[in-house]
Specification:
This protein is α+β, with helices and mostly antiparallel strands and 241 residues long. Strands 1, 2, 3, 4, 5, 8 and 9 form a seven-stranded mixed sheet that branches. Strand 1 and strand 2 form a beta hairpin. The longest helix is centred in the first third of the chain and has 33 residues. It is elongated and about 90 Å long.
């Protein structure tokens, strides 16, 4: 007489557990191999002038652009040119927002306000190809009481350049070309890709990488489904009398 159903189960389960453990390890190896074979995606960012406001002696990323912000008398506005993904990792101006120091030689006057301005063109690594970043500079703008930050900047750092979306592209003529272009990790820029001051790289497709091929997750998932299918077939055969 052949083994009973209970006997078959007792014999099969340890072997099935061992086989499933083997499949799990094999799946891990496949995933690791695919990860090593798929090239890493280059990080991207945007090259642009960010706008900052002084708050209690520190720089705070502005929640609106200089064209609509209306600083009060005694305010400090900062501008920093750099490459960053978004406002969360944007570089701050390297000069402290010290109104008293910047406007020390500009006395108050009735009917106008004083706005300290810090213009930081950034470091050489952030400069567009073929251009050299000018030196950091500060100035005290004396403008009308209802003037915007953009008007205060124009009073001390012309020429300014804007694009069709009113994005600030250049201060004192720097940079000569480009406006919020996307930049890859190796420094290559795409001048046709415009960005706002808080823009971030577009999310890549979950199914494809930049070269149009399948992503790591898709390949690994397919391998896992295949291995589980093999396990199901093996288990169904083991259950036959």
């Amino acid at each position: 007489m052949g083994p009973t159903a209970v006997g078959r189960t007792a014999v099969t389960r340890p072997r099935l557990a061992a086989f499933l453990a083997f499949l799990s390890a094999l799946c891990a190896v496949v995933t690791f191999t695919v990860a090593a074979a798929v090239p890493a995606q280059a990080a991207t960012g945007y090259r642009y002038w960010s706008f900052w406001l002084a708050d209690a002696g520190r720089w705070v990323y502005a929640s609106e652009g200089p064209a609509t912000a209306r600083p009060a008398d005694g305010s400090v506005n900062g501008y920093r040119f750099s490459v960053s993904e978004d406002s969360g990792d944007s570089a701050q101006p390297r000069e402290a927002p010290d109104f008293a120091a910047i406007c020390a030689d500009t006395p108050a006057k009735d009917g106008v306000k004083r706005v300290a301005v810090v213009v930081d063109p950034g470091v050489p690594a952030d400069a567009p190809e073929g251009e050299t970043a000018p030196a950091l500079r500060t100035a005290c703008a004396r403008v009308a009481e209802d003037a915007t930050s953009a008007e205060a900047l124009a009073a001390v750092a012309k020429p300014l350049r804007y694009n069709g979306d009113a994005l600030l592209c250049a201060i004192s003529g720097y940079p000569k070309t480009g406006c919020g272009e996307q930049v890859s990790a190796d420094g290559d820029g795409d001048s046709d890709t415009a960005a706002t001051a808080t823009a971030s790289p577009a999310a890549s497709s979950a199914e494809e990488d930049e070269d149009g091929g399948p992503s790591l997750g898709l390949i690994a998932g397919g391998a896992a489904v295949l291995l589980l299918g093999v396990a199901a077939v093996w288990q169904s055969r083991r259950r036959r009398p």
